[in-house]
Write a structure and sequence with these properties.
By secondary structure, this protein is α/β, with parallel strands linked by helices. The chain has eleven helices and nine strands. The protein has a seven-stranded mixed beta sheet with strand order 4-3-2-1-7-9-8. A two-stranded antiparallel sheet has the order 5-6.
Length: 294
């Protein structure tokens, strides 16, 4: 009789950082690591475009969704048009394209696969400070985030937003009842006016989850079963920020990824970003193997 291989525990989390289109570097990593990680997962935590990538991966509709996005964004030659403001229109094309692409990902069984996931899929959004108008909150929040990022390039987890009264609002994507509701949640977690509209989810006004933590590792670690946390970043960081830090393993691109955060004009750069993640999976593979067996 052959002894069955011991079943490894579900004690691993993946944290998907935000970063707009840059988050698709994470998808490239998962093309190589996904089958190894899935049986070990106890939680996913994600914000902003990282939440888009995480749910796209779980929905199992990457091929269809990438083809849809490429076709849907045809005709986009500029990411920002001042003349549209003069006509009373939104100056950016991203919001409707993003929403339609999410709906494609969650169609034809995609949402059902996410809802059947045997672990929490935590999407982090940001609640603005009480009594602060949402537009003012968005301006203050993004100003604080960008200031902190410029001053502290080696700071993975920002703190200024929380000190100003912004707070995390976390929702398990498995609790969404329809593709439209899940799209609302992801757009709320990605709310970056003027590129996307202000977030609205179940009657609440919400902002990009990155304003409280662009790599929301602590949300995943609130799940009792999590013992180790793979944190997937979307831009280069100094070596001192990366590698194993306690129960976390920080993985980042070795250089700037090809695509810009909100560039919808050159779809081939998104493809190159995914391909870069695929190539760099081997660069980080040794660290991941050590992390999973420790």
């Amino acid at each position: 009789m052959t002894n069955a291989a011991p079943q490894l525990p579900r004690d691993v989390a993946i944290t998907f950082a935000g970063g707009g289109n840059r988050a698709f570097y994470q998808l490239g990593l998962l093309h190589h690591w996904g089958e190894r990680l899935r049986p070990r997962l106890a939680a996913i935590a994600a914000c902003s475009a990282g939440a888009c990538v995480a749910t796209l991966w779980l929905a199992g509709r990457e091929t269809q969704t990438r083809a849809f996005w490429r076709a849907r964004r045809q005709g986009v030659h500029r990411n920002f048009e001042w003349t549209r403001l003069l006509r009373g229109q939104r100056p950016t094309p991203h919001g409707p394209i993003y929403r339609d692409t999410l709906l494609c990902a969650y169609a034809e069984g995609g949402l059902e696969l996410i809802r059947q996931t045997p672990f929490p899929v935590l999407v982090v959004t940001t609640s603005p400070p009480p009594l602060v108008p949402s537009a003012v909150g968005a301006l203050v929040g993004w100003s604080a985030y960008n200031l902190e990022k410029r001053i502290r390039r080696d700071f993975v987890h920002p703190v200024l937003g929380q000190r100003l009264g912004f707070s995390a609002h976390v929702v398990d994507a498995r609790r969404c009842q329809t593709p439209e509701e899940l799209a609302d949640l992801i757009i709320a977690s990605s709310a970056t006016p003027p590129f996307t509209p202000m977030g609205r989810f179940r009657g609440r006004t919400l902002l990009d989850g990155g304003l409280v933590d662009n790599a929301p590792a602590s949300a995943a670690e609130a799940v009792r079963e999590v013992r180790r946390n793979l944190v997937l970043l979307t831009r280069p960081y100094p070596p001192s920020c990366l590698g194993q830090k306690g129960s976390r393993l920080y993985v980042a691109p070795t250089r700037e990824v090809p695509v810009d955060v909100w560039d919808y004009t050159r779809p081939e750069l998104l493809d190159r970003t995914i391909e870069m993640g695929e190539r760099e999976a081997s660069v980080h593979d040794r660290a991941l193997r050590r992390f999973l067996v420790r």
